[in-house]
UniProtKB/TrEMBL annotation:
This is Malate dehydrogenase. NAD(+) binds at residues 7-13, 33, 96, 119-121, 232. Residues 149-329 form the Lactate/malate dehydrogenase C-terminal domain. InterPro entries: L-lactate/malate_DH, Lactate/malate_DH_C, Lactate/malate_DH_N, Lactate_DH/Glyco_Ohase_4_C, Malate_DH_AS, Malate_DH_type1, NAD(P)-bd_dom_sf. PANTHER family: MALATE AND LACTATE DEHYDROGENASE, MALATE DEHYDROGENASE, MITOCHONDRIAL. Keywords: NAD, Oxidoreductase, Tricarboxylic acid cycle. The active site is at residue 179. It comes from Babjeviella inositovora NRRL Y-12698. It catalyses: (S)-malate + NAD(+) = oxaloacetate + NADH + H(+). Pfam families: Ldh_1_C, Ldh_1_N. Its EC number is 1.1.1.37.
Amino acid sequence: MKVTVCGAAGGIGQPLSLLLKLNPKITQLSLYDVVNAPGVGADLSHISTPAETSAFVPGDKNDGLAFSLKGSQIVIIPAGVPRKPGMTRDDLFNINAGIVKTLAEGVAEYCPDAFVLVISNPVNSTVPIFASVLKAKGVFNPRKVLGVTTLDIVRANTFISTLTDANVSNINVPVIGGHSGETIVPVFSVGTPSLYAKLDADAKAKLVHRVQFGGDEVVQAKNGAGSATLSMAYAGYKLAERIIEAITGASDVVECTFVYLDESIAGAKEARAKLGGELDFVSLPVKFGAKGVEEIKYQILDQLNDEEKALFEIAKVTLKGNVAKGVSFVEK
Ligand SMILES: NC(=O)C1=CN([C@@H]2O[C@H](COP(=O)(O)OP(=O)(O)OC[C@H]3O[C@@H](n4cnc5c(N)ncnc54)[C@H](O)[C@@H]3O)[C@@H](O)[C@H]2O)C=CC1
Ligand SMILES: O=C([O-])CC(=O)C(=O)O
């Protein structure tokens, strides 16, 4: 099992690579960054776990990106700039779109069959960019190109457990839509119906708002030194770990992720119909198998309560624009 991290020397990349190094199912851990990857690689390589660590930068005598990607089954991408206070994720588009496009071209050439987990923001646009590049190169596999929205689920689980004094280990709140502000729709009514029922309307509204804008909390607290890195490394690792489980034979892997609703995937047609034919990409619970997304669990769209339905209608409008922006970046 070869896993590559692109952006491995960054705030997310380093702790994410550490968590991956600890997974005994990973035999090769490949680190790529435009700077400092060799140092991070040397450091991690001293850890006494099976994963063999290698590290690459561009212009290596070995052609860094090519060597880091070749043979990878999973590529995780936290490459790009993070927010500073006062910025939206969309403000990162101009820089990160180009970075993601270059990495997508690399994946298309060197490991088109890999699972790709895109962390770089704005996820609502960078995943469509990634998919469009692979499509243009004739190697897009909609079952394997995924936007990482897991941090929203992690936050939803943490925030409701703190509020209700419940054991967080037993909580799994689905979060659907996209990954920015109002496009993030936590579905507490399905994930934790009995805990959620304990809260009054005001507490519910505040909880939803906190999940939607949890990223801002960290950006403000870091005060110019970036955005969530440690919680994001945890969340990115969690999704990667579940995918590794699916690749190695687990049959019960269901996680929320941001995907292209390709009609060849079971449930995608139903999801599209329920979304009024308006969205090509959305985060929903999906079932993973060894070859990627096996099924889109569209049924959740029928289970939303009235508040969640209203939130989702708002999410759809912004999400549609974010997706179109990513697609047109590649078309141009
Ligand atoms: N999906 C999510 O839930 C979250 C996404 N993010 C996003 O993740 C991204 C990374 O955040 P941080 O790690 O905090 O930033 P960072 O600045 O600490 O690290 C980014 C790394 O990417 C590298 N990089 C830049 N261009 C590259 C290229 N062309 N190829 C390979 N590597 C390249 C940089 O050298 C740097 O080491 C940001 O866009 C941020 O907004 C952050 C938190 C949560
Ligand atoms: O807020 C940001 O810019 C980083 C991010 O996506 C998150 O923490 O959810």
